[in-house]
Amino acid sequence: MLDLTDIQGNILRGYRFPVVRYTFVTINSTEEGRLWLNEIRDQVTTAEDWGAVPPRSTLNIAFTYAGLSALELNQESLDSFPAEFRQGALARAESLGDRDESGPVHWDDGLGTSDRYVLIHAMFVIYAVDFSSLDERHNMVLSLIPGDGVRVIYTQDAGQLADGMEHFGFRDDISQPPILGGNIAEYPGHGIRQPDGSWRALATGEFLLGQPAQDGAVASSPSPEVLRWNGTYLVYRKLHQKVAHFRQYLKQSASALSWDEELLAARIVGRWRDGTPTMRSPNQKDPALANDPMANNDFSFSDDPKGLRCPLGAHVRRSNPRDALPGGAAAVEGHRMLRRGMPYGPALLSSMPDDGVDRGLVFIAVISNIRSQFEFVQQQWKNSGGFAGLDPAQKDLFVGDNDGTGVMVIPMADFPRRIFGITRFVVVRLSLYLFMPGIQALRFLSEVSDD
Fold first, then answer.
1. CA–CA separation, 226 vs 222, rounded Å?
2. Of 216, 263, 299, 428, which is least surrounded by CB within 10 A?
């Protein structure tokens, strides 16, 4: 059993509030930073059960490596963090394919420049039932800042679109891995497939430090133990979606194939827009199936080795190949991620051309190992075709580092179809690696000294 009172709530619980604000602060005074953290730590929302009445807003907080340094965490502890976290997402941008349009030079508010990036010290996140409640909680958190030593440098609001869709028009956030001891409902297809066709939850240590991971190992960093216990890492990615561009590409490619646009869209993603998996309904959407949590993820890609129902390069197959890779489920289980994200910006009406408005998705990954989870998936499954024996030119159509030369192969019973000229439909506007401590660790950070 986990101590839910010591775990920040948005690690285990996927908040379903309609609006959210991500606020980034810089800490110019260690003393004032600690005083502020000491004031808000008891207000941080934990993973405890809310009961019958959920709160009107929630509060959670995470820190960059620069932020922990600004709080004057001792050097031994700072050095104990893994290299990728210490380096940060800016330094690792090239290896993640964050180049060209997605390059740091184009990130929001100049935050991709080294002198601005190092000013991002903490991110506090408020989910709320409406913007009034969000503003109220946000202003309360800011009112607890004791002076000028902590200041806001950037904010990002986001909110649910109609019917749980994202901007490209697909239902989002259907599948999340269940966690042992996490007190989260388990549904077929969300965990790890067993030889008998059943599914099991993932080891707690895949998402929480201080707990055994899939291989039985328990993370030994960061130190001391109070700092890592019940903590985790977050990857924050602001992803601008080129909605009009995608719609035009889909229309042109479908016309070239003499296909229906919706069929092509379903093959690109591996699901119909309503969430119906093509593995279970390859030729048409099935609303009853899409809305049945006991069935809409209950499938195996090993049943479709050639990709006739779900192409080998489809987005959902790249995100979680399940048991279809050499080595079966064991080749996948150490690379799963909890996703916590929300669309931002207004929806673009289907009849409208590009209006120049910024819209997209704030993507959050909750993981215990940045390198083997987020970075592995981005590098090996999204930006490479090699993971399924595909040509290297076949990258994830949505989040791969496509440059206009990409191709996607759609296997068919008679002969494969191909779509060409794939460019970036999703552009990175900000990328961060953060550490989200447990509640006791927040107390430790608010009182820590070099003694």
1. 9
2. 216
